[in-house]
Amino acid sequence: MELNLDGKNAVVTGGTRGIGRAVSLELARAGCNVVACYRSNVEAAAQLEKDLAETPGKHSVIQADVAVPADVDRLVDECRTRLGSLDVLVHNAGSISHIPLAKLGIEQWRNVLDSNLTAMYLLVSRSLDLFSDQASVIGVGSKVALVGVPLRGHYTAAKAGMIGLTRSLCKELGPKGIRVNLVAPGIIDTDQAAGLSPEMRERYRSMTSVGRLGEPDDIAGAVVFLASDMSRFITGETINVDGGM
């Protein structure tokens, strides 16, 4: 068994910033042809497109909001046109907000559920005829799903729902050779963590066994492992990548 992904076709949602950017680049370095999508940050998309161009393979960066069914259909059609088939689907896109329950409106609830959980359903269901034999679906969940955090009831519910969806899909799609897994990050040092105070950063560091915050490449490594044949007997699992938090 090898980690080599030469010639495999991959799509990464939320693929131009933070964890998604690291995943897109690591898959490309491992040999994949990568289609990365983004919602709105044109500068990040342009930078990733430039960086992917320096990596062997056929790569594309496409605008799509995966919370919108029509955009998911367009993204899948682009993958069909540009790649022909899919060996790896990484659903990393998602939104988060911090709102107390008393002020959590239905629109905010739906936005977070749709971009995280519903988007995974849409992406997998729309891609069924594109998946190759032994395809790998990888969702990016969160350690918070089994812990819970105040002000993030909608986000926690969405990520917990991804665990259940992963378990069901692994059983339904397994006979077709398709594996479905989740990677659940802890606190990762991305632009979202940039606003943490020094005190909060130290608190989070002290909560991990390894004494540091995670880095996007830590998550990318787990994703590439799950995309490869080295994990060919792993499905339905949630792998916590949290430094022993």
UniProtKB/TrEMBL annotation:
Domain of life of the organism encoding this protein: Bacteria
PROSITE patterns noted in UniProt: ADH_SHORT
Entry-linked InterPro entries: KR_dom (IPR057326), NAD(P)-bd_dom_sf (IPR036291), Sc_DH/Rdtase_CS (IPR020904), SDR_fam (IPR002347)
Pfam families hit by this protein: adh_short_C2
Residue span, Ketoreductase domain: 8-190
SUPFAM superfamilies named in the record: NAD(P)-binding Rossmann-fold domains (SSF51735)
Similarity-based family: Belongs to the short-chain dehydrogenases/reductases (SDR) family.
PANTHER family the record matches: 3-OXOACYL-[ACYL-CARRIER-PROTEIN] REDUCTASE, CHLOROPLASTIC, SHORT-CHAIN DEHYDROGENASES/REDUCTASES FAMILY MEMBER
Protein name: SDR family NAD(P)-dependent oxidoreductase
